[in-house]
Amino acid sequence: MERYLRQIPVLGEEGQERLRDSTVLIAGLGGLGSPAAYYLAAAGVGRLVLVDDGAVELSNLNRQILHRERDVGRSKVESAAEKLSELNPTISIVSMTTRITPDNSLDLLKEAGADVVVDCLDNFTARYALADAAWRLGVPFVHGAVEGLYGQVTTILPGRTLSLRELFPKVGDREDIPILGPTAGVVGSIEALEAIKLITGAGKPLLNRLLIVDLTDYSFEVVSLER
User: Fold this and answer.
1) CA dihedral 102, 28, 135, 126 (to 10 degrees)
2) CB within 10 Å: which end of the chain, N or C, has fewer?
3) β-pair partners for 209
4) pLDDT of residue 82
């Protein structure tokens, strides 16, 4: 109760208990996954499933705030799990050093037992695979993406909203997308808040709405989505 004293007036005791009893899968422990995981761990999500097959590189450190220079060459999920356990030792953390593919995404999500999936990935091949699996299993899917000073967030609820493929039917993958660290911080934090909203019922999540963030002039626009 003392740890969550300042947020219980916002979420209520029942909301805090829902967080404690929930599982959130965070796909990608990089620029978006770092702030998302930090805030979900700090908020008291009872079980975090971390999925990433990558290792920490020096060029990650301008934005991937879970990692340190001493972690270069180390598995991202191992590095992330260590920091998150230090931040909140009362929660459970599951590490999966796995590349998400169309062949394994459904089994991976079943094994995780996630109540919410937070998409912090950097490529649409893996995003499509995980979003398809979440759609089949009826699991809410929080999508976020960034480039430079721009970002976007939306929440996909199977049966109630458009799917990821309907929203973005033909997006190709790119290498070395430019990104400024604070942009990832803003968007990843919003993704964490979306997951908290879905679990606790506090606030209004971005269902059939796309938040577009332009930090060149601090504009935030919410676009209504229709079939």
Assistant:
1) -30
2) C
3) 224
4) 98
Instruction: CATH number for 8-224: choose from 3.90.226.10, 3.40.50.2020, 3.40.50.720, 3.30.70.100.
Output: 3.40.50.720
Here the tokens at position 133 are 């699996």
222 SS3 class: strand
Closest listed residue to residue 80, CA positions, set 91, 90, 66, 99? 66
Cα(42)–Cα(227) distance, rounded to whole angstroms? 37
pLDDT digits (tens, 9 = 90+) for 62-83: 999 999 999 999 999 999 999 9
pLDDT (tens digit per residue) in 122-147? 999 999 999 999 999 999 999 999 99
Helices (H), the chain: 8-20, 33-43, 76-87, 105-112, 124-137, 164-167, 181-200
pTM (predicted TM-score): 0.95
Q: Residue 3's closest CA among 91, 103, 76, 69?
A: 91
Q: Domain ranges in the chain? A: 8-224
